[in-house]
Specification:
By secondary structure, the protein is mainly alpha-helical. The chain has one domain. The chain has ten helices and no strands. Helix 3 crosses helix 7, helix 4 crosses helix 5 and helix 8 crosses helix 10.
Length: 210
């Protein structure tokens, strides 16, 4: 991952994705609105429940929550169960400073992921993006392009957590440097900088990944 983040094109990729300093008429990627739509999914008044804005936000990342699941999230038992789990997941800390048990198997975050994954029509990508919308500083976006680039560790959350903390949090520091160099607001988390940088780099090349 550090190799991918060390290439010269990274800052340009970030600016193009978020539409920073681009020529007039350049359209940013729809995903540039993922964390900012309606003020963000982690703002205190909505941090512990899923909203209609969250469902639209994940669509900016090219996934759609099935209608029956969306209704259950907004009005049903599924939403209530996830709200209880979200209350146990910190919303105001970065992954790099979180203890590993917050991300480990059996944690509230892990339970929330599995509960979402168990819903008909919700795959691992959708489940992860829903949780990343609610906890953008703590839980990363992880899709097939990123998986193709970085591999399939037993737990991507824990693998990324370890990588961010190694060498006195050198990788986390690099992500913050990239955010500043690209002119992105601080509301774009280090995890999101990582995701966009890896995704943009990997999609630019013709890779044959499952």
């Amino acid at each position: 991952m550090r190799v991918l983040l060390g290439t010269e094109r990274v800052v340009g990729d970030l600016r193009r994705y978020f539409g920073i300093g681009m020529p007039a008429g350049t359209v940013p990627f729809t995903g540039s609105r993922f964390e900012h739509l309606a003020g963000g999914g982690d703002r205190p008044e909505v941090a512990d429940r899923f909203t209609a804005e969250d469902l639209v936000a994940v669509q900016t990342l090219s996934v759609t929550v099935p209608a029956s699941v969306a209704l259950d999230l907004l009005e049903g038992r599924l939403g209530a169960r996830l709200s209880g789990l979200l209350q146990a997941i910190p919303w105001d800390i970065d992954m790099v400073v979180a203890e590993a048990d917050i991300l480990a198997e059996g944690s509230p975050a892990d339970q929330a992921w599995h509960l979402l994954r168990a819903q008909h029509g919700v795959n691992w990508v959708i489940a992860g993006k829903l949780l990343a919308r609610k906890r953008p500083r703590l839980l990363p976006v992880y899709d097939r392009v990123v998986r193709c680039a970085v591999g399939r560790p037993p737990s991507f959350w824990l693998a990324l957590h370890t990588a961010l903390r190694e060498d006195d949090a050198a990788l986390h520091g690099r992500l913050l440097e990239l955010r500043q160099a690209a002119g992105l607001p601080e509301t774009v988390s280090a995890l999101r900088v990582c995701d966009v940088a890896v995704w943009m780099n990997h999609r630019a090349v013709d890779h044959a990944c499952p």
